[in-house]
Amino acid sequence: MTTSREPQAAAEREVCGLVNGLAQQIADHVRERAVTLGVTAAQATALREMTGPMTMRELAERMSCEPSNATFVIDKLEKQGLVERRAHPTDRRARLLVLTADGNVLRERLLELLAQDSPLAGLTAQQQRALQELLEQAITHR
């Protein structure tokens, strides 16, 4: 017996499958590009998300992970001379993560590689913005 909710459930399953499939394609793409640069996918994600100085908590939010996981990733990047921790100008308990000159160079190269054959490359800039807006709306609807 089919319920009145079945069409909605089927639509949700389809959307969930598509979102998961796209997320997997993006993760695979990041992993493939990271390997060519000698970093892990998590390190590449951190580099991609470091658009400027930020706290560990901010980076963890951008990476969608726990701060302890982001700390592990940053420790590795710091040992490679790509990131450094600096005093926060207004919060003496916090540290700012800042890319070094080498980190900026690597990040730029990563961004170039990520732009090549991106899973989103088949969409126009307008379609990408529309997809982003729809996903944001779905996420913030809760």
Explain the overall architecture.
This protein is mainly alpha-helical and 142 residues long. It is built from six helices and two strands. A two-stranded antiparallel ribbon has the order 1-2. It is globular and about 60 Å long. The two termini are 30 Å apart.
Major sheet: 2 strands, antiparallel
How would you classify the helix and strand content by structural class? Answer: mainly alpha
Indicate the low-confidence ranges by residue numbers: none
**Into which percentage range does the β-strand content fall?**
5-15%
Radius of gyration: 18 Å
In whole angstroms, the N-to-C terminal distance is 30 Å
**How helical, in percent, are the residues?**
55-70%
Number of helices: 6
Physical arrangement of strands within the biggest beta sheet? 1-2
Query: On the 0-100 scale, what is the average pLDDT?
Result: 93
SSE arrangement, N to C: HHHHEEHH
Overall spatial form: globular
Number of strands: 2
Topology:
Layout lengths: L5 H32 L3 H9 L6 H8 L3 H13 L3 E5 L7 E5 L1 H15 L9 H16 L2
Antiparallel strand pairs: 1-2
Helix pairs in contact: 1-2, 1-5, 2-3, 3-4
What are its keywords?
142 residues, two-stranded antiparallel sheet, 2 strands, 65% helix
Condensed summary:
This protein has 142 residues and is mainly α. It has helices at 6-37, 41-49, 56-63, 67-79, 101-115, 125-140; strands spanning 83-87, 95-99.
